Amino acid sequence: MARSAWSSSTHVLDFTDPADTAEGVPALQRLLAGDIPFISRESRFVRKSGERIWCHITSIIVRNDDGTVLYGVKMIQDITERKSVEERLQQLFERVPVGLYRAAPDGTLLDANPALVQILGYPDRETLLATNARTLYVDREDRHRWTSQLERDGVIRDFAKQLQRRDASIFWARDTARAIRDAEGRLIGWEGALEDITARKRAEEVTRELAQVARELSATLELSRTAEQIVTAVMRLFGIRRAILFALDADAGLLRCVASAGSGAEEEWVGRTMPADSGLNGIALREGRPAWTADYSLDDARLTLPDWIRARIEAEGHSSGLAIPLTAAGEPLGALTLRDVCGRHYDDEELRQLSVFANQAALALRNARLYEEARQERREAEVLADLAGTINSSLDLSTVLTRVVEGARELCASDLARLALPVPGGNEMIITHSCGARYTGYATLPIVPGRGLSGQVLATGRPCRTDDYLADPRISKEYAAVAEIEGAVSEMVVPIRTGDRVEGLLYVTNRTLRPVTDRDERILLRLADHAAIAIRNARIYGETERRRRAAESLAEVGRLLSTSLEVERVGERIVESLRGLLKSARVVLMRLEPGGDLRVVAGSGHTPPATSPNGVVLAGTNAVGACVRERCPVTTSDVLADPRITVNPADIPEFAESDHRSVLAVPLLIKDGVIGALSLRDRTGRVFEAEEIQLAQAFADQAALALENARLYEDAERRRKAAESLAEVGRLVSESLDPAEVGQRIVDAVLALLRVKVAGLFQLDPDSDNFVSLAEAGDLGSLGDSKVVLAPGTGMVGLAAREGRAVHTRDNLDDPRITYTPDVRARLTTALVDVPYRSALALPLRFKGAVVGGLWLRDVPEREFSQEEIRLAEAFADQAALALENARLFAAVQRQRDRLLRRAARPPRAPGDRRKT
After folding, report:
1. 688-705 pLDDT, tens per residue?
2. Cα(55)–Cα(79) distance, rounded to whole angstroms?
3. What span, in angstroms and rounded, lies between the C-alpha atoms of 112 and 126?
4. Burial class of 312 by CB neighbour count within 10 A (0 to 12, 13 to 18, 19+)
5. Which residue in 752, 718, 723 sits closest to 879, CA to CA?
6. b/e map of 113-147 (b: 16 or more CB within 10 Å)?
7. Of 815, 817, 810, 818, which Cα lies nearest the Cα of 864?
8. How far apart are CA 917 and CA 744, in angstroms?
């Protein structure tokens, strides 16, 4: 405390900071005049050392009875430390990026920091404080619920509500506040923190929508419906004017519109095509990332577009565009194009969300395509099996060929199908059967070598095709008038052959821009094979009685072929029929294995076959090996004495002891490819006649169809199961954030579909770069006792991650490319004693180019993996990578949310609180 007389030569103002002197003098004058009883204020003082300190000053005047001033009393308290704390708190209040406020119960705003002014869109703090908080609410009920909870609980956390800015725009806010009460407990106001969470709310909404879209996409495997769901969903999620889905036809180099949604005429888009390298789509596919333009009307050299697209853009007024490539397992599937008003901009968050959606759409599109291909192949197998039954259940060649034409039109999805046969006694052909034709003069229209597309097939004996019949310079114009009547655009013609002779022609024609494909050619050649069999059977049926009996046997086999896809059952009927017709001692049906060996499928008779105990004839040996090599029948009266035939040394003792060394071997041919052989044995010295060889070849054709149909059906079933499993895994990925659950479903599916012994899924630990086993299935042996951890770069998974592709080895323990840590090698060596599965396939799990894990398959040492099996494994690897990434993103969001909750839960410090910040 300081006591001073006002007349003293030294005054307290002499020690006051000059900046505060002007403020203190008027108050002192009022005190001296008796207008106020005392002075209480804060001011800065200057010490003798020159240091400035904050002090709280209380001044009073002591007067005598007549009111004369005797002296003044000043109480000075050093508050420097408190002022420092208050200044830091004020700076925090001013600078924190979260909106802070104080308000009265009636809604009057008492204080607000700059962040709140900015969030609410007001020009300055004073303008905001002049606004009542009640007017900021979009829903007044939110205000009622907020105040009720604060009055009841005293605090409220993370209250989400919609507010409106000064410009009337609406946003989502998250409010954490507490009630302020006086010493008697009366409510005197609120204070709290407000955060703009509009972007987060939208991201959450889009995430939920994406999950729903993923469930919708995984619920269907129909290609057209999947495409429609994709464009409809992207319209709904991102509020654009038009969405178009283009599917890539890599063979034709075209993008074909398969679905469109939005304002304008959708029929003007669907079915139209554009070059795959043009426009934004071409840029997106070429660069593997989204491509964007604010205005198509600008003179941009990149945007070379077909006239029809430019016309649609002008008509619909959607001059901004964004193209997103759709890829799965590194394979481009097409592009998703978004159209909107001129200048539409896509921020980074929208592009990220669109990329996530594109990944989901690409997987759904590929699953649908796989399912569609499986469905088509299954239908193809069914049609071919039905056709085989028709061939062999009817002696009417016209009935069979009509079914061939109908099957060609159905399986190739063409507008027109035709079949031509030779004119008896002439060198020309005419169309005898058609389906979907407009032209009525085929019965008198000769087809001769060299004229038109069919003439080229007659001249060369090879399939021919064109994507534009009338404009193709290779095609002569003798049949141009017929092509115009038919509206022919693309066309394919394949020969119907029996041996080296062309017995007929099979056509398919499209009246639109859809080109014929390699798949169409494959189907037509199979149908042509059936037609050739029907023609050959018809020729046989018209001959002698003995051939009639042979034809009846063929028909019986054909009926069995049409009702059963069991190769063993059909094979047994074939060998029994052929042995009875040709009176042979033994007939054996064999299938060609990938390595060239022949494995027995069915046999009839008592003479032991010249095969190893497991029913295998080594590649290139004996008569069957010779017929496979030469792709034509091989006959000999004594197999041991024929220099053309190399007998397997292991079979020589059996042949030497047998008096049945006469052999007829005929190949099983499908499209000039050998898939097996029929072997007939009889007494030594027997010579098989030409008609007997021809009959054996007819049965071989039936056997080839049986093997091929069974293979097609098996492939179709495998693809169907694969597509269904992928769809199921896709649904699980969209519904579960547990990578272990999804991983287990994936390894179980891969184990069943690829028929491997062991399947394992590894996850990359980002902290250690180790690969840690996440899920396993199959016969693990001792490896199943605990999780396997692979150090960086080790094991099959490390090799696959290093090379960035699928890798295969016949011996995963002794392959020099593969390294293991000593403990893992020891465990693997021990496990392989009980479960010797050394052949292995490993694939990296990649998400946006980064390796996040690996898929490891093991099987017996001789196991090889086809490209189709590798592609299927890659599809499951993509699903696994997506599951791991979804789980990682979810965990990151949870961690961020927890941090924000902890920060928001800290109570604000009251004025005067001297605790260190």
Report:
1. 888 788 888 887 787 777
2. 5
3. 9
4. buried
5. 723
6. bbbbbebbebeebeebbebebeebbeeeebbeebb
7. 810
8. 50
Residue 295 contacts residue 322 (beta carbons within 8 Å): no
Q: How many whole angstroms from its chain centre is CA 476? A: 45
- List CB contacts of 725: < 8 A, sequence separation 6 or more: 749, 752, 753, 876
Q: Which amino acid is at 816?
A: P
Kindly state the tokens that stand for 163: 């507010």
What single-letter DSSP state applies at residue 447? B
Residue in the structure block whose two tokens are 């507008």 = 415
Residue with tokens 């995430």, as numbered in its chain: 207
Compute how many other C-beta atoms are within 10 angstroms of the C-beta atom of residue 723.
Answer: 23
Closest CA to 640 of 610, 678, 607, 668: 610
Residue 13, strand partner residues: none
pLDDT value of residue 732: 64
Q: Which two tokens stand for residue 173?
A: 């806010």
Helix (H) or strand (E) holding 164: strand 155-164
Is the Cβ–Cβ distance between 605 and 593 less than 8 Å?
A: no
Can you count the helices (H) and strands (E) in the chain?
A: 23, 32
Question: Backbone phi, then psi, for 67, in 5-degree steps?
Answer: 90, 5
CA dihedral sign, ordered 24, 27, 32, 37: negative
Count of CB atoms situated within 10 Å of the CB of 593: 13
Q: Is 238 left (phi over 0), alpha (psi -120 to 50) or beta?
A: alpha
- pLDDT tens, 41-75? 888 888 877 788 888 888 888 888 777 877 778 88
Angle at 881 between CA 880 and CA 882, to 5 degrees: 90
DSSP element (H, E) containing 340: strand 331-340
Distances (CA, A) of 41 to 21, 57, 75: 12, 5, 11
d(CA 885, CA 764): 11
Whole-structure pTM value: 0.38
